[in-house]
Amino acid sequence: xxxxxxxxxxxxxxxxxxxxxxxxxxxxxxxxxxxxxxxxxxxxxxxxxxxxxxxxxxxxxxxxxxxxxxxxxxxxxxxxxxxxxxxxxxxxxxxxxxxxxxxxxxxxxxxxxxxxxxxxxxxxxxxxxxxxxxxxxxxxxxxxxxxxxxxxxxxxxxxxxxxxxxxxxxxxxxxxxxxxxxxxxxxxxxxxxxxxxxxxxxxxxxxxxxxxxxxxxxxxxxxxxxxxxxxxxxxxxxxxxxxxxxxxxxxxxxxxxxxxxxxxxxxxxxxxxxxxxxxxxxxxxxxxxxxxxxxxxxxxxxxxxxxxxxxxxxxxxxxxxxxxxxxxxxxxxxxxxxxxxxxxxxxxxxxxxxxxxxxxxxxxxxxxxxxxxxxxxxxxxxxxxxxxxxxxxxxxxxxxxxxxxxxxxxxxxxxxxxxxxxxxxxxxxxxxxxxxxxxxxxxxxxxxxxxxxxxxxxxxxxxxxxxxxxxxxxxxxxxxxxxxxxxxxxxxxxxxxxxxxxxxxxxxxxxxxxxxxxx
Length: 519
Known about the structure:
The chain is of the alpha/beta class. It folds into two domains: 5-194, no CATH class; 200-516, 3-Layer(aba) Sandwich (Rossmann fold), CATH 3.40.50. It is built from 18 helices and eight strands. It has an eight-stranded mixed sheet with strand order 1-2-4-3-5-6-7-8, sandwiched between helices. Strand 5 (298-303), helix 10 and strand 6 form a beta-alpha-beta unit. Helix 1 runs antiparallel to helix 2. It starts with a helix and ends with a helix. The model is unreliable at 132-156 (pLDDT under 50). The chain crosses the membrane at residues 12-38, 44-61, 73-97, 103-126. InterPro entries: AB_hydrolase_fold (IPR029058).
């Protein structure tokens, strides 16, 4: 007997609702971002799977009575059983990681798989037991004599066999999708199970009244007369990136605080209104650290793009600043300014290049957070070699942060405001601003000074341009550090310090800090 009309109607309505939800969700998140910035691709994948699986109630294959029906029936029965089990397991993984939306979709998918599978099995077995098969003309082949007597029916059977086989192949693809999403769930759940948070948490009350939980860690001996170091970077790097520096600095008798910015590690995700701006939470972060007894002044260690928001904070709150350590810190538009100078571009041409560059990076991050990360594929592409990490025992814990969609979504989100910010042909942006209250605040700028040979070994395609770019960046970093008139510049070669993030040779940086600020 065929599936009851009510069951088929319900399956069709559920499928239509899920597919419509995917479309509306895609449109909504494109036009108006959600309250919390999450990787919306993951629930969209699950919703699409629920919709497709719901359509399977329209396909009923009798229990095996012929070769034509035997393979599709068994394969589809196995599909429903295995897929339901994987969906349930994925739901558990997402619950452990803290994604209730993914948990709900996984449970819904599992329930739909069980219901559709039960309907499929029940109708197939019932039609076989009754000996009456309304779908027989579409599923069971005929003997040669029957086929000769009824050519249209034989042709219908052949086409139906092809259709069932094609549908079975599609279900194999669906099963692969479910396996990959389950694998992504395992990768995401690995963190809370194998690598629980090392630090502590505090809740920041933002200007809108929203509350944002931040994961932070302060380690090292306390010294009431000496400021605490606070390490920061751009929106792509969190607490785990600074562990090697943390270990060396605390071994030297200093105290350092590090934290996961919103969207990274174990901190809450960004609210959409924050636009990945540190200014929306940074003062609250400093106040919270002070409330935890970490002091009222800090020496800010800023790597790369982290220097700009730190200096913006310092301009508005100079009393919190005891010093700066800038590690290869550049102004925001430096790479575009170099291209303009090297190629003799106008400002308009430079901003066209910037727009194209941002589009390419956004597309890359979209693919990573929409495909590779939700499917658990990043462990294949992200380096698994602990040699590049200065604390090998913690490498697996560090690398997990770059295997989950959350990290890549934060990086994607931090790029979006750049589209509306026009780049300037010259100047240092916020670093052109001087404040009397910050004059003579000590600054230590550690700047990479790579040799031509090292640069050309890395950039073999256009060595001369690469060397020119390194020289441009070096000059920019020195200018950035001269914001207080009390800058000390320390140059280092690739063999000395390797200022990539995470720092591969933090000992050099710590030695320079100890000479600058002896206890």
